[in-house]
Amino acid sequence: MKENNAILRLANVGFQVDEMVILNNINLQLRAGEFKLITGPSGCGKSTLLKIIASLLSPTSGQIFFADRDITALSPETYRQQVSYCAQTPALFGDSVYDNLIFPWQIRHQQPDPAALVADLQRFGLAENTLEKSINELSGGEKQRVSLIRNLQFLPQVLLLDEITSALDESNKHNVNDIIHRYVTEKNIAVLWVTHDRNEIAHADEVITLQPAGGSAQEVSHERA
Question: The whole model's pTM is what?
Answer without folding.
Answer: 0.91
